[in-house]
Amino acid sequence: MLKHAWHNGSAWITQTVDNSGYVGKYTSLALAPTAPYTPHISYIDDDNDSVKHAFLSGSTWLSEEVGYGSFIEGMGWTSLALASTAPFTVHVTAYDFTREEYYHYTWDRSEWDGTRFDSADDAGRNASLELGGGFFPRIGYHSKGGEGVRYARRAGLSWSFSQLESFWSGEDISLELEPTTPYTAHMIYFAWEGMTYAIDQGAAWPPQVVDNLASQFASLAIVPTAPFTPHVAYFNGSVQTLKHAWYNGTAWVSETVDSSASVGRFVSLALAPTAPYTPHISYCDFTNMALKHAWLSAGTWISETVDDSTDVSHYTSVALEATAPYTPHIAYHSQAALKHAWYNGTSWISETVDNSAWVGTFASLALAPAPPHTPHISYHDYANTALKHAWLSGSTWISETLDSAGTVGEYSSLALSNSGEPHIVYYDRTNGDLKYAHPPLQFVYLPVTLRQYP
């Protein structure tokens, strides 16, 4: 079944979204951008081989069929997005394993319209969906038949396609759109030549090799203002170093960030939100099993050890505060405990968040957008096979178990609303479901006084 949980101010409440059968795999979640921030979920109904959509209406979850597969191998890999303005049109993509075709569905306010927009052999793996301007679907995905990277965009009622690569390419596709019209698409992916970047130029996507085939764990970020400079942090396996690359307007410039040991695996990249958009990278020093942080200062990379305790693992997550001086925070797993580190202006401060058992794997960190930028972390409690959530209240970390029914809590991902409320998705291994937890909707009723003027 598909389930949903929210926080009522003191405890987590869990409810069933759909228990009509074996439902809930390949889930994708989006929230309406304005109050009451209605959640929408796309998912698979295995019993009926269908794609479904659920949304919260008042206090009741409503579920509906979106489209059907071919009843042999079924449907999968759903992705859902909402238009950014009312009526917040719902878009869903899904893959038909039997036909090896990729479908797009949209709600026209009366019924679901399903479009098979690519019939290429085995098209649709590693799909990445964005809506340009909140309306126009753009999709980057892998076509196994051509072993290539493809891009689809809809203009009006018709789809157009571009083939970026056609030989041994398409792993780890990431699509980003510029925030202003025409919402130009940027992509990073791994191809035969190595880590490759491409930008939509209308008639073509000329590929640019950022680095060679040994490059791994790439993380792409784009400066939010023109000329929308792309930055990539990545691990170069041939020399075991952390590297950073950016496009200077004519060519890619690549530089070594840290070569002190075997460093750079499992990088996490964040850019400061204002000029000069300073990049910050958290990463693992595999030789010393230490957590490290690097940032660019006046053209020079500064690298430092955040925590060199024994057995600092790969589960790191970096975030920057939204206001100057954009203080970096890192959540990570160390010595079977969950830890949090931040920079106080002169040095890194590291503290234990939860050491109750073997906890802290699959850590995901987010900071509240407004001061004091309260950190929230979702993570897995391995000893009790549970999902946990922790946040800082004053100077004290508060930790709570959100769900312990079966084996749950792996692959958690946390995001905060504009008001700082936590939303978490996580995996229920026992039931093969993806679950979603978020706070309840809050309403405030104010008295109204009517006056009559002469």
Gyration radius over CA = 23 Å
Q: How are the strands of the biggest sheet laid out side by side? A: 2-1-37-36-35
Task: State the separation between the terminal residues, measured CA to CA.
Answer: 61 Å
Mean pLDDT: 80
Task: State the shape.
Answer: globular
Low-confidence runs of at least 5 consecutive residues: 109-119, 441-445
Going by helix content, strand content and strand pairing, the class is mainly beta
Give the beta-strand count.
Answer: 37
Tell me the major beta sheet: 5 strands, mixed
Tell me what you see in this structure.
This protein has 454 residues and is mainly beta. It has strands at residues 2-7, 12-18, 23-31, 39-45, 50-57, 60-68, 75-82, 90-96, 101-107, 112-118, 123-132, 136-143, 148-155, 158-165, 171-177, 185-191, 194-199, 208-211, 215-222, 230-236, 241-247, 252-258, 263-271, 279-285, 290-297, 300-307, 312-320, 328-334, 337-343, 348-354, 359-367, 375-381, 386-393, 396-403, 408-416, 422-428, 433-437. It has no helices and 37 strands. The strands form 9 sheets. It has a 5-stranded mixed β-sheet, with no helix packed on it. A 4-stranded antiparallel β-sheet has the order 3-4-5-6, with no helix packed on it. A 4-stranded antiparallel β-sheet has the order 7-8-9-10, with no helix packed on it. The protein starts with a strand and ends in a 17-residue tail after the last strand. The relative contact order is 0.09.
